[in-house]
Amino acid sequence: MNKVEFNNIKITGGFWKERQDLIRNVTAKAVYDRFYDTGRIDAFKFDKKSEIKPHIFWDSDVAKWMEGVAYLIQEKSEPQLEAIVENLIALIEKNQDDCGYFNIFFTVVEPQNRFVNRDCHELYCAGHLMEAAVAYYYATGKRKFLDLMCKYADYIEKRFKIDKDAKFVTPGHQEIELALVKMYEATGEKRYLELSKFFIDERGKKSEFKYDWCKESYHQSHIPVREQKEAVGHAVRATYLYCAMADLALRYNDKDLQSACETIFEDIVNHKMYITGGIGSSRAGEAFTIPYDLPNLIAYTESCAAIGLILFCHRMLLLTNDVKYSHVIERALYNGFLSSFSLDGKSFFYCNPLEVLPSLKKRDGELTEKTINMPITERVEVFECSCCPPNIVRFVPSVANYLYTYDQNAIYVHQFMESTASINGVTIEQKTSYPLNGKVEITVKGKNTRLCVRIPEYVEIYQGENADGYAIFDLKDGDTVALDFEMKPQLIEANPLVTFDSGKVALMRGPMVYCLEEVDNGKNLRDIRIDKNTEFSEFIDTSLNALCIEANAYRRKPTEKLYSKLSNERINIKAKFIPYHTFANRGESEMTVWFLAE
Question: Which residues on neighbouring strands pair with residue 472, listed in sequence order?
Fold first, then answer.
C-alpha cells in the first residue's frame, strides 16, 4: 500500500482548515514565545555561563517546533518563522562537534557523560532533530540541516553499531528508530535504515539500564521486540517503538515484526484504550497498566501518546489496508488528540482525563495536584516537560497524511476533510462539513478510478457495494459520488470488566465523544442520570463553535443528611452535552464522559 503525503493534499475548508489556520496564526508563535521565555531557544547558543541550565530534552522540544514550521512553509511562505529556523540551524552548525555529535545538555553541562546514561534522551533528541531536518529539506530544498544530521547519524552509527563503545546499546526513549527510516527515505542512504533495524533487533536481547523504580518493560526492553505480545510501559516510548517496528516490517517484509505489531495493537484497542482513543492509564511511568484498568479521574492519556497511537495505526494501515486502523485514527484524532489544545490555540493539556473534579484539589490541604496524583484542570501555555505543545504544532499541519492510500487497483479514502489531492495521476476533491455531519461528496478527475471509501465505525448499516469495510465505486473521469453517513447520538457502554465504567454509559455522535460539564449542568455531575429513552436534540453552540446535544435527564433532590433511605424521587432536567475536545475552555469546571442512565 502506498502512502499519500500531505504535501500532495490541500485542506481547503471546514473543520481541519480552521485548526490548521489556528496553528499557523496563533499556536506556532505562542509555543515559540514560551520556549524563548523559558530559555529553550537561547540554549542553542551553548552559553556555558548562562544562568538557565538546559534540560536533557530541550533539543527535542525545539526540534519538533522546527518540524512544525517546515510543514507550515511547505504549504505557504512564512518568512518570519523560516528566519527563526535558519538561525537555529546556524547555531546547530556552529556548535556541532567536529565528529558530528550535537546535544545541548551533554555539551554544556555534562560533556564527560556523552552516551553514558541510556535514559537521558540523547538519541531521542537526535531523532527529533533528524525528523525536523528531513521535513525542512522537503519544504525548502535546502540541505544544510539535513547534512548536519547525516553527520550526526554517521557518528551514532560509529559509536553504537561499529565501535560499540557507547555505554548502552538501545535508546531509553525510542524515537531515533523511526527518524532513521525517514533519513533513509530522504537521502537514499541504506545505512540509516540498517541502523534503525540494529536498534530494533538489539532491544531486549540483554539487560540494560533502567530506573530503580521500574522494570525493563517500562522501556519495552524486557524481551526481544518480535516476542512482545502486549502493550507495556511508557505509552509514548511504546508507540514510537511500534511505529519503527511497523516501518521496518514494511520495508524488510518482516512477518515476525508485523505479527508482533498486530498482536500489540489488538491488546491496546481491546484492553487498554479509552473511548477517546487516549492511552496510558497510569501517572506512574506515564504507562500502560493491566487489561481493563481505565480510570477516568486520574487517566494519564498523554497528548503525545494519542499522537503516537495515530502514527502507529497509520503505519499498520500501510502494511495491511485494514479499516480497523483508520477507525482508531479517527477516534483518537477527534477526541484524545483534539482535546490537547485550547480553542484559542494558546494553551495545552499534557494529560487528557475523562473526568474532572476540581474540588478534589482541596482534599489534602496544601498538597499540590502533582502530590495527590491528579491531572491539571485547565490547560497551560508551557510545561517543564513541554513535549506536547510542539508535537501539536507539527501534527496538525500534516494531518492530511491520514486521508488516503493507493495501490495499482484503487485509491482508498480513510478520513473525511474538505480538500483537494493529487494521487497517482488522479485529482480527488472532497466537499464535506465532516464531522458536523456525515455528508461527503468526492469527485475524481484525470482518469477512470476505483474508489474505496472507508465506512466509519459508527455506521450501523451501509446500503451499497462494499467489501472489507470499504464502500466501492468505479468512477469515470469527472464523476462525483455522494455519501451520507448517518450521524445520530448513540449511548455506548464499556466492557463489564472496565470497573470504573460499570453501570455507566457514554454518548457519541459520529466520531466524537461527548461529555457533561459543570458550566452547563451545575455541580455534582456524577449524580445526573440520563433517560435511556430520551429523544436527543442537537444545536450549534456558537461560543464553542460546536454541535451540542440536549437530553432529558434526572438528578436527586438535595438533602442535608449524609445518608438517607433509598428514594426514587428525581428532579427533571435538560442535560447538555458538549464535544469532549471542547471541555475546559470556559474556566475550571467539573467534567465527565461516563454518566448514569436509567
Answer: 452
The CA-atom distances, in angstroms, between 212 and each of 209, 218, 349 are 9, 11, 28
Exposure on the CB side of residue 451, measured as CA atoms within 13 A = 30
User: Can you tell me whether residue 414 is helix, strand or coil?
Assistant: coil
CA-to-CA distance for 268 and 288, rounded, in angstroms? Answer: 9
Query: SS3 sequence, 555-592?
Result: ECCCCCCCCCCCCCCCEEEEEEEEEHHHCCCCCCCCEE
pLDDT(228) > 80 = yes
364, pLDDT greater than 70: no
Query: Angle formed by the axes of helices 122-140 and 176-187, to 10°?
Result: 30
pLDDT digits (tens, 9 = 90+) for 30-71: 999 999 999 999 999 999 888 899 999 999 999 999 999 999
Whether the pLDDT of residue 369 is over 60: the answer is: no
Between strands 449-454 and 411-413, the pairing is parallel
Q: Is the peptide bond before 511 cis (omega within 30 degrees of 0)?
A: no
How many CB atoms lie under 10 A from the CB of residue 93? 14
- Residue 303's CB is within 10 A of a number of other CB atoms, namely 26
Residues 250-293: tens digit of each pLDDT: 999 999 999 999 999 999 999 999 999 999 999 988 999 999 99
Q: What is the CA radius of gyration of the chain?
A: 24
Q: What is the DSSP letter of 598?
A: -
User: Domains of the chain: which residue ranges?
Assistant: 40-209, 212-356+364-399, 405-484, 489-597
Question: In which element (H, E) is residue 508 found?
Answer: strand 504-509
